[in-house]
Amino acid sequence: MVRHGNEKEENWAKEQEKIRLEKIAARKKAEEREKLKALHFMHCPKCGATLTALTLEGLEIDECPDCKGVWLDAGEFHQYVALADEKKQSFTKQLFGLFGLK
Ligand SMILES: [Zn+2]
């Protein structure tokens, strides 16, 4: 009977140790992710130079002053595609208007 109680305590202690180690591992992983993020934020993925934020057609892009690469944040590519479509339609409408067409 006593032995059964010790086994329960040992299992509980093992489970608590497992939870403690998992928390430590998760915290270390989060710290490592933050370090990497700080190290790479606004740096060119090709050459490592510090990126410059530019505004183009009302949208912000990141340009590398060294290799001239242009980088877009999440969703910006789709914004540019939508903007290009609008301009294309606008241009087409203007062109049709020029010839009296609709
Ligand atoms: Zn670069």
Structural class: mainly alpha
Report Rg.
Answer: 28 Å
Low-pLDDT segments? none
User: Tell me about the biggest sheet?
Assistant: 3 strands, antiparallel
Q: End-to-end distance, in Å?
A: 92 Å
Shape: elongated
Total strands: 3
Spatial order of the strands in the main sheet? 1-2-3
Explain what this protein looks like in three dimensions.
With 102 residues, the protein is mainly alpha-helical. It has a three-stranded antiparallel β-sheet. It has two helices and three strands, in the order αβββα. The protein has a domain at 2-71. The chain has helices at residues 2-40, 76-98; strands at 52-56, 59-63, 70-71. The structure holds zinc ion. Zinc ion binds next to loops.
Q: What is the topology?
A:
Blueprint: H1 2-40, E1 52-56, E2 59-63, E3 70-71, H2 76-98
Antiparallel strand pairs: 1-2, 2-3
Bound molecules: zinc ion.
Main traits of this protein?
mainly alpha; 102 residues; 12% strand; 2 helices; single chain; binds zinc ion; three-stranded antiparallel beta sheet; 3 strands
What is the structure about, briefly put?
With 102 residues, the chain is mainly alpha-helical. The protein is 61% helix and 12% strand. It has a domain at 2-71.
